[in-house]
Amino acid sequence: MRVASADDLKRWAAFLDLCAMLAPKARGAVPSRDDKDWELIVRFASEHMASPAVWRAVEGDAAAPEEVKAYFLAIHDMNARRNQMILEGLEELLARFDEFRIKCVLLKGGASVASGLYDDPAERMLTDIDVLVATEQIKEAETALRSNGYKDATPIQAGPRRWFMPPRHHLPPLVPPTGGFSIELHTSLVASKQFESLLPPAAILERAFVLQWNGRSIFVPHPTDFLIHNIVHSQLHHELFSCGMIGLRQTRELAMLVASHCDDVDWIDVERRFSTAGYGEVLAEQAVYSQALMGVAFPVGEHDTQKAMDRLRTGIMNSRQNSDADFAARPHIGDVLAKLARIYIRGFVRDPKLAINLLNPFWWPERIRGIRALLKHGNSTQ
Q: Whole-model pTM?
């Protein structure tokens, strides 16, 4: 492990501060930070797609700069409106499936919000709607949507020199006539066969919980499957475990799930599945992070807390996508965040679909820097 520099330690401290703000029971004081540290917090929140959830922590804190509060409030409110649009789309999807008598199980963010895991649904960024459908009904489900005007999503180039493999666990995304989000019809919860023993689709469909949502019966995964899917999706499917990293949005949601449904989870089955598949260490690390970062303990076997936290700290230090020195050297974050909030609020009023830009975490640091350059240029010419 390389020796940590002063910038590394500042980066790690800002990451821990953000975790404290996102902890499920977090309320009250936010650590007093100077502009540079607040900028790192803003940056981490954006990269981890957790910005809407920070508003709760900063709104009543006298130490938080007003510009920071305005920024996170703007993100929260725009996400609330976008989520409302997506949830209206979910109601339409469920109505169509009821007509065709198709059973579907909500997955990921849609399941979390619809099941009431969040007391404030605007805290959870939704990128799309994911549903699990039995293999024998998948074509009928696709027909039900296409007959209602749903079309193939327009491919979006996420970056240069990036190639995409067609997924094997869900159909190509479909977009409703109004646009703004997509729907993925899954036949499996995982893309790789090596993870199927952790999340067998037929069993998940069979033991799914039925709940009432907006006067309609919906199905969500059993808490045991919900917990395992969260870990597998972020740590194995997205390979965060291999680089010693976590996604704070997923880590927070995992802690919230355990805090709300610990007694409903079959912990013996959880440990058995991870151990049998050869991923016991992955589960152990997530238990460490949930307790150390979010204050929620898992009742699973022993784990090496120091080793897990050292690995995460190294991952955070090595995850720089831009020069921290260049990023931290830019002044006047208050003006930037206030202006950024005003720009997006006005833009959202003109075009509500603009909020979809919030869902690309790589855009926000560039946006902040771009606005800074604009302000600097404007000030120099006045």
A: 0.82
